[in-house]
Amino acid sequence: MTALWRIFTLMVKGETTSLMRGLLLSTLVLMMGAALLGLSGWFITAASAAGLIGAGAVFDVFRPSAMVRFLAIGRTATRYGERILTHDATLRALTRLRVALLSRVAARSYDRLIRLRGAQALNRIVADVDALDGVPLRLFLPLIAGAVTQIVAFAVISWLVDLRVGLAIFGLFTIGGAGVLLWGIRRAQTPSKRMEMAAQAFRSRLIDLITGREDLAVYGQLTTQTETSRSAEMRRQSAATQTDHLERQIGAALMAVSALAAGSALWIGGHLAEMGEISPARAAIGFFAALALMETLAPLRRAVAEIGRMIGAARRVSEQLGPEVAPIVHSVPNGSTDLIFSDVSFARNAGARRVIDGFDLTLKPGEWVALKGPSGVGKTTVLLLGAGALSPSGGQVRLCDHPVTHCSPGTVTLVGQRASLLRGTVAENLRIVAPEAEDDALWAALAAVALDDVVRAKGGLSMRLGPRGAGLSGGEARRLVLARAVLRKPLVLLLDEPTEGLDHATSLRVLAGIRAALPNTGVLMAAHRAEEQGASDRILTLG
To answer: What pTM value is reported for the model?
Structure first.
């Protein structure tokens, strides 16, 4: 429960006003429900008694009936407002939580990111955050509102009816309700957790089945993958059936607690009325109020049934968020912006052979430097060190007298060997780095990488790309990523074989276009091809 409470406090931090207002309205709804039934019970009993004794003509029916209508209409309106406030605030809180989790994943070290299965990690984050909507809506807010309502009802019933009636109702709801909830939590954790695990397995296997169906068919594994997906779904359905059965059992147990509380109130109130200590109308208040107070426990039955799923999600999210650490960010000052490698060395693990050892380089603004050498000599590692994606084992990588990891985002831009594009239009893929950029700026960036004519022929900036840039060839996708880097206008641009897959003429146009578009940007690139080396001011041979 500690993890659930931490998630609840995190969600409340950003939506304190809305959630507190929603909690107040939720409490008012419960109190108005108890008042409505209690008043209705009193009104019916008192009116019947007045009729029996012949005092019906002088009995005031207007004010009680008006109050009944007011409570009925007011309760409906209050419930509507409470749902809008709490659900809207919860959705906004979940949005911030999802962004925070994605930011933590993106901030992981390069070594961890390259081992990460993006689709699986995203699926896990989305599923965990979706599971947490019940933390405020079905657990803590109803629990707090119900507890406050029970305390207020105890005080009012003790005052209007009798202390013994109030104690009976409060004690049975508190002890009986807590007992049922604890019993339900113990029984529901395992099937709820199994249901979530099976749902995750089914989703992952189904995604793998859809995305890799051609390869699976080629290797004769399509039927096997289909069966494993079906098996996971069957396990999910079995666990869901068990969870639903437990939820009904919990609901029935809570109804029994409510019936016992109402029966006790009726028995004690009737005995007191028979003894002449209270009137029958006052005794009716306790009985009907006890029936209405069942609403303080009813919303918790679903939360209890899902408790295993919520606890597991809360623990994983808490672990991923970790302690709040404010990043150190320095803005790079105007003037000279040299990227300096000072006696830099790097090894993958302690005691392992150093990939880079004693590397020194000063990259001036506007200067192009090519890194040359056989595969595996460390060219890509130098680029990753320059981008701050890897931390050097020794030495320093600095930009304007600051560690490169402390520079503002976008100051140093790395374009790796893989083209990273998203489903959406060409314009949307470009505006990831410059949301306010005008169409003219987008076309200028495309022209710099010799892609403007291709994009015009395929539908312009509104051309839609599929997952991972589907709709463009490998070379076109690579140039679109380069255009995005040009649009960002970094102080230092790190390129890993930028013209791979392009013909000679296009390679020369792309390199010349980037240089013309970014005349003051220092460029460091891993260069295998003669075009890349020829476009550089100097060449460093590694190895």
So the answer is: 0.70
